[in-house]
Write a structure and sequence with these properties.
Blueprint: E1 2-6, H1 10-22, E2 26-30, H2 33-42, E3 47-51, E4 53-54, E5 57-58, H3 59-68, E6 74-79, H4 84-92, E7 97-100, H5 105-121, E8 127-129, E9 132-135, E10 140-143, E11 146-148, H6 152-162, E12 169-170, H7 171-179, H8 190-205, E13 210-215, E14 219-224
Parallel strand pairs: 1-2, 1-3, 3-6, 6-7
Antiparallel strand pairs: 4-5, 8-9, 9-10, 10-11, 12-14, 13-14
Helix pairs in contact: 6-7, 6-8
Length: 226
Amino acid sequence: MKILIVEDDASLSEIIHRALVAEGYVVETASTFFEADSKLAGYSYDCILLDVMLPDGSGLHLLEHLRALGKRENVIIISARDSVEDKVAGLEFGADDYLPKPFHTAELLARVKSVLRRGRTAGELSISLGNVVLKPENRVVTIGGKELSLLKKEFEILLYFMQRPSHVIDKAVLAEAVWGDYADDSDNFQFVYAQIKNLRRRLADAAATIEIVAVYGFGYKLIVKE
């Protein structure tokens, strides 16, 4: 899952970044309204940590713009302004949660996990498709009740597909979602092909009733075998 931190305090941004990466998230950062707006226009995120007071604009205006575009990313406002008015405004603009500064990293991580669970799995603790059950919070996959061992990126790819069954996923979109900004540095998508190949083999070897199939000229999609 991919998270964007919009925070102009470099030290706080770095602390949050390290904590989220340690939890296995793909994390990107923006320190200004303009930088965040550019990223949100071109990419999608599972969760956005949004500071209200940015050097070149208001985080609330950024949130308003995001919702006007029809984008439904989970948003947690992190702000030193702990007034009732700011909380109400943030929630009315479509924020999913509001966490006043200063806060403990453990609480932030718990809030992130909570909004991701509500947003992607409708409050459920697992995603089921065919005989495969995936638990995002503890990163466990079982097939027919037996646990399947996956590498980190294999898990992230499977999670992305299981959240979008039967949807055709472009390889570039998948690379950006799982690898973040690093995907832009690549001239080809061989790393995507390799990870997909390995994941497909692991699923087949474990007798999974789901399969990632190639859609020629477009990308891949996850299907349930008949």
